[in-house]
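Late entry, evening session. Most of the bench is empty. Finally got around to the prediction I had been postponing all week. Sequence below, unchanged from the version circulated by S.P.
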Amino acid sequence: MRSLLLTTLFLIVAGAASAKQFQEHNALMDHGGGHLMDMGGGMVMGQNVDRIPDGCDGIAATKEITVHAGHKYAKKFPGRIYAFDVQEYQFEPCTKLTVHFINEDNVRHQWMMHGLPKYLYPKGMFHLEVTGPGKISGTLILPPGEKTYLVHCDLAQHMEKGMKGQLKTGNGSGDLPSIPGVTPFVVQDDYSTIGPPAGIEKAEAAQMAKVAAAPREEPLISGVLVIGLAVGLLLTPFLMRKFKGMSAGEIVAYLLDLTKQLIGYVVRFLSWLYTQVSSLISKQGSA
């Protein structure tokens, strides 16, 4: 009983230690060029709070959004594993936008925006990242013009598993493919029955299935039966002379003794064959 209590207590303490507490990443170190980060797994890349993009007369509007990321937001999209709570945003060009990114999973997630002008945003992107449950915030000023920007999590397979969205300035430049709940997937999951092999017509496949399902008919006269009959016919005259004058018990005893002798011959032959093959292999190995 004491051992069970100690084990239960250990599991509770271990679980509590492994569950990371929600963390506000609001004490970031500025590494220059809009790159901020801390030692707790929070990162902002490409932040721009005051430089007006070329083509903008000024800041058209000031907006804030809160983006939630996590496994639970993918439940409404069959076949997806991760998702944002919102998959589509739309703002006026030249808007100053602050994004509050909240990760609700015990893994690392990102909110990354691509296609921004590189003279203003290094590598052409704006990037928020949080490891484990937590919140981080960053600001950018959207470029002029009507365009649709990809926002997603760039960790391996997170976007493919559903963590993807789009942000439009103005009316945008169209919709991006495979945005959960917005546009159809380019490669749709298909859980239907696997069809016939490539290049085989349906009629041919049906005929193949019919042939495979049909019971196999065994031939009336097999090769083993023919050999057995031939051997029996050859031995019949000898056996008739041998068994002449013998009782049924003597015949059975003779057949058992004959079978024993045959088995002995076979065993000795196989032993001799094994010795010869082993000797041959040994000679080839030493050559």
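Two things to note before I forget:
The chain has four helices and 13 strands.
Residues 1-17 have pLDDT under 50 and may be disordered.
Will write this up properly tomorrow.
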